[in-house]
Amino acid sequence: MSGNMNLTLKVWRQKNSSTSGKFVTYKAPEISPDMSFLEMLDVVNEGLVKKSEDPIQFDHDCREGICGMCSLVINGEPHGPKRATTTCQLHMRSFNDGDTIVIEPWRASAFPVVKDLAVDRSSFDRIQQAGGYVSIGTGGVPDANEIAIPKVIADEAFNSATCIGCGACVAACKNASAMLFVSAKISQYAMLPQGQPERYARAEAMVLQMDDEGFGGCTNTYACEAQCPKEIKVTNIARMNREFFNAEFIKG
Amino acid sequence: MSNFSNAFSSTLGKKLVMCLTGLFLCSFLIVHLTGNFQLFKNDDGLAFNQYAHFMTHFTPIKVVSYLLYSSIIIHSVWAIIITLHNRKARPQGYAIKPKDGSIWSSRNMGILGTVLFVFIVVHMSNFWYQYHWGETPYVEYRTDLNTGATITKEIQASEFTDYVSYIDNGVEITKSKDLYKETQFAFQQWWLVAFYVLAMAALAFHLVHGFQSAFQTLGWNHHKYRPLIKFVGFWIFSILIPLGFAAMPLYFFFLK
Predict the structure, then answer these.
(1) What is the predicted ipTM?
(2) A217–B92 C-beta distance less than 8 A
(3) A212: enclosing H helix or E strand
(4) Could you tell me if A91 and A146 lie in one domain?
(5) Entry pTM
(6) Of the candidates A73, A200, A248, which has its C-beta nearest B6's C-beta?
(7) Where are the transmembrane segments (chain B) (predicted)?
(8) Are A100 and A127 contained in the same domain?
(9) CATH number of the domain that A25 lies in?
C-alpha cells in the first residue's frame, strides 16, 4: 500500500529479571502511519508468532491514554517523541519511512523487568497503599456545595489526580526518582478537605515507602515534568517537600 | 509519628541538607564579594588588609567561618552520598541517552561541584593558609591625619610582632600582614588567573541551577514569587557574583 512505512526496530529482549537482556533487531514492513505505536508492535508480534518465535512482551490495557499501563522508552524518550501523549496514543505518523526506532523498558531498580519491555511497577502500588487513600467514612450523599472548595483549588487537586501512575517520570529521571508520581498522589489529597485528617501521616508514610522501594532522589532537573504524558507539574514536588518537612519537623 | 533521624535519612532530608548548606554558602558569597571589592581601592591595600585582619580575628566571624568550612565539607560529602544512592536506583542505563528537556547544568552539578571543590582547596591554600600559617609580606602604613596622605612601606618580618593600629603625633600607624601584596603576587601568574576565571564560570553554571533548585527543595515554588527567585538566581548569583569575583584576578593581572 502506498504511504506505508518500512521501519527497523531495535527492541530490548530479556527473558526475566534474573537474566541479562540484549537488543534484537526486527524489520517492521508496511506499517500504516495511522497505526498506534502498540498496533505496530502487534503487527510485528503477529509476524513473530507466524514464524513460531517468541513475541515481544509489552504492557498495555485501555489503549485510550488513561490507564497508565503502557510504557516504553522510544528513542530515549518515555512514551516517545510526542509531548503529553502515552505510547498507546502515539501514532506512527510521528515517525518517518526508513527510521530505526530503539525501544527500551523503563529502567530503574525499583521497576525490575518482568520480560522484554514489561516491568514490574508494583512498587507504585505499595507507595499508594502506604497512604494514598482517605480512610474516613464517606457516609451518605452530602448536599451540593455543603463543602465549599474554591475552583482554583479544586482544579489544582484535579490536575494532580490526573496522574495515571505510568512511571514515565521514573523512566525520564536521571536518578530514577519517583517524586513526581508520589508528589501528585500526596497533593491530590493535601489540597482537599477530605484529605486533611491524614494529611501529614500520609506524606510521611508515602515518602518513606518510596525510599524503601529504592527509587533515587530528586535533583530538580525537571525531566519528569517534560516527559509526563499527563503534564503533572513539579510544583507538586515542592508541595510534597513542604508536606513532608511539615510532618517531620512541625506537625508530626 | 515523626522522628528526626527519619527526616534526615530520607531522600528528601538529604536534599534538605544540600539545600540549606548551599544557601548558606550562597549568602557567604555576598559577604566575600562585598569585602573583597576593597581590593579595587587605590590605597596600596590599607582597607583590604584592615578588613582581612578584622575577618580573621573578630570572634563572631570566626564562629561563622567554622560553620562555613563545615558547610563546604557537608555539602560535598552529601553530594557524594546522594549521587551514589541515585546511581544505584538505575543499575542498567539506557542505550539512547534520554532527551529530557532538562538544562545541562542541572544534570552536571557533580562535575561543576568538583571543579569548585578543587578551586576552594587551591584558593584556601593560596590565601587562607598562607595568611594564617604561611609566609606573607609585612607592611606599614603611616597616614598623616591632617593631610590624609598615606605612606606605605614594606617591613621585614623582624620588625613585625602583631597587627597594630595606633595614633602617634597625628600620624595613624598600621602594621599588618600584607595580604594585598600576596594577592597581587599570586595573580601575576597567568595560569592561576585562568584557573580562577574558569572556576567562576563553573560557579555561574552551578548556581544557575543550584539557587532556584534550593527553593524548590524547601517547597517554595509558587507562581507569585517563582519569577523573583529565578531573577535573583540568574542575574545576581550566576552573572553578577561570578563576574565580580572573576574581575579580581583579571584586575591584578592586567592593571597592577
Answers:
(1) 0.92
(2) no
(3) helix A199-212
(4) no
(5) 0.94
(6) A248
(7) 12-33, 63-84, 109-129, 190-211, 232-254
(8) no
(9) 3.10.20.30
